[in-house]
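Worked example 3. Consider a protein that binds adenosine-5'-triphosphate.
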Amino acid sequence: MHLTGVGRRYGALGPWVLRGVDLDVPPGTLMRVSGANGSGKSTLLRLLAGIDAPSEGRVTGRPRTAYVPERFPSSLPFTALGYLTHLGRVHGLRSAVATERARAWLERFGAAGHARTPLRELSKGTSQKVAVAQALLAEPELLILDEAWTGLDVDARAELDRTVGELTASGVAVVYVDHDPRRLAGAVDAAYRVEGAALLPDTGQVHEPAPRVTIVARGRAGAPLPAGLPEDARAELDAAGGATVTVPAAHSDTVLRALLRAEPPWHIRAVREPEAEPSPLSYADLSYVERGAEDR
Ligand SMILES: Nc1ncnc2c1ncn2[C@@H]1O[C@H](COP(=O)(O)OP(=O)(O)OP(=O)(O)O)[C@@H](O)[C@H]1O
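Given these inputs, the predicted complex is written out as structure tokens:
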């Protein structure tokens, strides 16, 4: 599978979560994706899984794909086995084969005792085992795992490690996100990190994300964000004219300047320093606002 110039933003005015992503996922590759919270890892995985479409760019050569989402929809009206059998049939298996495979995967992950338990009564860890089983049942050519180890007990985690090894050895490509950098570390063929909306090769060094400042501003209801915001700024607009912009600290002045010089200017309500609680404007911020006003 190949991604060419792929970008994703949520909403026409939303900031780009991913942009200019070019990526090859050859058969049999074990690929790790890392990045800070909210950097866009799950967004990338959903695009790879084919359950979300890029806002720009192309995805070509899609293989048969299965996906273990970060959050499993456990409120469906099925038992664990009923759900897996149903999905097996969706994937084109005969009922008896689907049930047999479902039982085998539940057994392998230590959840056979919960085959008849309704999904909504399963513990978080057992739900996660069902989520993993539904993906494996499909015998995918590409498997996408979004924090699939989270919530699993030690044995099931080891089983998932083993399963991933077997799959990649048999030519299945596996792309995964996991908060533990040691997860499958020795076996990884390709590692990337999402940073500033770009997908970068991960050299294995620990990259501290640049501290981000949050600027809360109010403009005219329905007004678009002003031009001139830095590329790495992320903004959320609400219908009443409120905007929350986060930006690496080094570029916060550029954001403030763009907001204050807009016509009509935006009112800056708070500037939140990295790691700090939301605070009203400090004296220094106010003097900046005054300077900004004079600049106009
Ligand atoms: N459906 C959506 N609608 C609007 N914004 C979204 C949606 N999904 C994700 N986002 C935004 O896209 C950005 C990236 O989110 P994503 O979940 O891909 O990050 P992540 O790296 O997986 O985060 P985490 O490590 O916390 O799981 C965030 O700012 C998030 O708020």
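Take a moment to read the result before moving on. Residues 154-169 form the longest helix (16 residues). The radius of gyration is 23 Å.
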